[in-house]
Structure formats: C-alpha cells, structure tokens
C-alpha cells in the first residue's frame, strides 16, 4: 500500500479550524447564556479544578467576536466561527505573538495551581474521580451506540404486556389535573395487579405475537449488519459460531 502526503491548502486549514472549534463555539459563543455543567471533581463533592487557559486561537475569537456581531447582529453562531477561522489564518503576526505570550503566561499560572490542587487530593478521591470518568465515558459510548443502531434501522422490540396496559390506560383512564404522573402511575400499576389472568392474557398474547415477528426481523437485520461490516451493533451472542460436533474416535477392537 502506498501512502501519499499532501500539503494542507489554505481552505483545508480553515475547515480544520472550524471542525475543531465548532462544538466549543456553540457552547461558548452562543448569543444566549449557557449553563455550565459541573466538573467531574464537583460531582464527587470536591472544589472545581483550575481551568486551562484559552489557547491563542480562542483568545482571538473572544476578542473579535463582539466586533463581528456588532457589524452583523443577525449572524449565526456557525457563521461567526467560519469567519473568525478565516480571519485567524490571515491575522497579523504581531497579534498572534501577543496572544501566544498571554497564553504561555496564563499556562504557567495554571500549571502551578493544578500542581497545588492535585497535591490536596487523597488516594480515595483520586479513585472516585477516575471511576466517575470511566462511568461517564461508558455512558457516552452507550448513547453513541444507541444512536448508531437507530440510524441503521434496527427493529424495535415490542412493548411488554404491562407497558401495553399502561398505554391503554392513558386513553381509557387519563391522568386528572389534580394528579401527579407518579400518583397516576402508582394507581394504574395497582390496577394491573388486580387484573385476572384472563384479562392480562389479552395483553400478553399481543406481546407474544409481535415478539415472534420481532425475532425474525432482528435476525434478518443482524445478518445484514454482519455482511455490511457493522459488527459492533450486533448482539454478541449472535457472533459466536456454534461449536462443531466432536467426532468420536473409534475404539480399537480387543482381540479375544
């Protein structure tokens, strides 16, 4: 296989900058105030860790954004990012050097503060932070997988008998203005428990019927996903080939 290396064009540099900062720009450069989420340290009951200083590019954005919006009040956030990315490429060298000096100065302060902060953490607190980061990462992966599965058109599993009853009760016995949803749900759950086996059987049969259809549909879908190379969205049990039957060795015939 031959790899070729090409120089970045001016347009590709701008595009790279836009893609790199777009998620942060939407959060930090929006015209409406955005509530900042708690840091991992705050979620485990610790003071927030020192914040990293803005890079020269983000300092440039912070300085130029008000001027750009003043000249064009109706400009969108994405267009702000696009124009500032282009302006950064053409920015004066002295301006970039000044922003770089400011960044290095603030970075030195940050490193000193972070060292002092880390020194105050106990082993137990470090372990708690590490575990929470792991949990957050795994939760993010699960969300991404659910989104990917949905985009690939995975068949939906049918509702359970109890859920079917809940859905029907929303129409037959809806929540009153005086009830909270929790109160209504508790009352409906109690009603389900009082149903006879024959009454529950109606909902159970509907679920079983749709479950058979679902099993066939999910089997076809997973086979298609395997052929297309989307192994990560297939249930792990379906990727395991059944063991081949063991051949029995012929026993030698003993001479009498």
From TrEMBL:
Cite the record's Basic and acidic residues compositional bias ranges.
Answer: 243-256
**Record flagged with keyword DNA-binding:** yes
- Supply the InterPro entries for this chain: HMG_box_dom (IPR009071), HMG_box_dom_sf (IPR036910), HMGB (IPR050342)
- DNA-binding region(s) from the entry: 50-118, 155-222
Kindly indicate whether the keyword Nucleus belongs to this entry.
Answer: yes
**Pfam families linked to this entry:** HMG_box (PF00505)
Name the GO terms of the biological process aspect.
regulation of transcription by RNA polymerase II
An example GO CC term for this entry is: nucleus
Disordered: annotated segments: 236-256
- At the top level, the lineage of the source is Eukaryota
Gene3D superfamilies linked to this entry: High mobility group box domain (1.10.30.10)
- Report the residue ranges that make up the HMG box domain in this protein: 50-118, 155-222
Instruction: State the UniProt keywords alphabetically.
Output: DNA-binding, Nucleus
Q: Identify the SUPFAM superfamilies for this entry.
A: HMG-box
Q: From the UniProt record, which GO molecular function terms apply?
A: DNA binding
Q: What is this protein called?
A: Transcription factor A, mitochondrial isoform X2
Q: Which organism is it from?
A: Drosophila pseudoobscura pseudoobscura
Taxonomic placement: Eukaryota, Metazoa, Ecdysozoa, Arthropoda, Hexapoda
């Amino acid at each position: 296989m031959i790899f070729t290396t090409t120089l970045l064009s001016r347009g590709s540099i701008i595009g790279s900058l836009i893609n790199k900062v777009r998620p942060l720009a939407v959060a930090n450069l929006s015209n409406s105030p955005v509530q900042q989420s708690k840091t991992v340290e705050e979620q485990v009951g610790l003071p927030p860790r020192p914040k990293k200083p803005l890079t020269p590019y983000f300092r440039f954005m912070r300085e130029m954004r008000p001027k750009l919006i003043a000249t064009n009040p109706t400009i969108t956030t994405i267009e702000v990012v696009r124009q500032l990315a282009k302006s950064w490429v053409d920015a004066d060298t002295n301006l970039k050097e000044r922003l770089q000096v400011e960044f290095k100065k603030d970075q030195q302060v940050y490193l000193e503060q972070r060292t002092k902060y880390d020194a105050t953490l106990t082993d137990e607190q470090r372990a708690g932070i590490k575990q929470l980061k792991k949990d957050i990462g795994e939760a993010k992966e699960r969300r991404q997988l659910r989104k990917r599965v949905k985009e690939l058109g995975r068949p939906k599993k049918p509702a359970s008998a109890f859920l079917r009853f809940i859905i029907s009760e929303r129409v037959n016995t809806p929540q009153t203005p005086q009830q909270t949803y929790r109160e209504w749900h508790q009352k409906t759950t109690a009603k389900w428990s009082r149903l006879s086996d024959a009454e529950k059987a109606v909902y159970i049969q509907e679920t079983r019927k749709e479950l058979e259809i679902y099993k066939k549909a999910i089997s076809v879908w997973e086979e298609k996903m395997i052929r297309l190379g989307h192994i990560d969205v297939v249930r792990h049990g379906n990727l395991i080939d059944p063991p081949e039957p063991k051949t029995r060795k012929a026993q030698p015939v003993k001479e009498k």
